[in-house]
Amino acid sequence: MDLATILGIVVGIAFVIGGIMIDGSVLTFYNLPSIVIVIGGTIAGTLVAYPLNKVKDSLVIVKKAFTTKSLNPTEVIDNIIEIANIARREGLLALEEAAENINDEFLQKGVMLIVDGTDPELVRNILETELSFIEERHGEGRSIFDTLGSLAPAFGMVGTLIGLINMLKTLEDPSTVGPKMSVALITTFYGAVLANLIFIPIAAKLKIRSREEILIKELMVEGLLSIQAGENPRIIEVKLKSFLPPKQRKTSEDDQREGVEA
Q: Where does the sequence pass through the membrane (predicted)?
């Protein structure tokens, strides 16, 4: 569970409500027609922009913004080094048995390609093609939330225009101008909050999650090709750690030292 996402949304809502309550009442910001216009219009606009199956898929993708279930790159490197050691000791064919214990489908597929004696260039092409399609799927899911983030304020403005038009129809009674004007602006408020507290931040979080997953899979491709080339496991380890940021690389090395000392 990614507490940052949940905490950010909860704290954001709390601050908005708190700000309202300092100088007013939350009930004055409740308006059902405005909610219908903003949420209904935003969903409808998204359905116009994307096929229904893509919108359904985005509901699955959004889970990634609320979870931290992702592979640890240092653990992936350790797995690849273990595979490299097996290949060095027992040969590439011995990896077929080792592949059964690999949990990641992408890494397992790469190992089986090596076991089958696939040409290294073809292995790279297959894995990089799969990688590019994974990245494209992630991009589609993220773009739906970008669209939601752009449509919510737009439909907030539509609601405000509807409110202003209704207000102008009854302009002969000046006492109603103020209340109707405030109601008209509520839709803009709803649209801005939804876009800036929910949709745009989720799109940004999905972009980070996608980049993390792609980085790990790029690391897997490089590791698999190094194993197939018969490189020394220690050289492979140094090469793969170059994918990691210096801080994470240092932590990994510290863990290994502690393991040796223990």
A: 7-29, 35-53, 144-165, 185-204
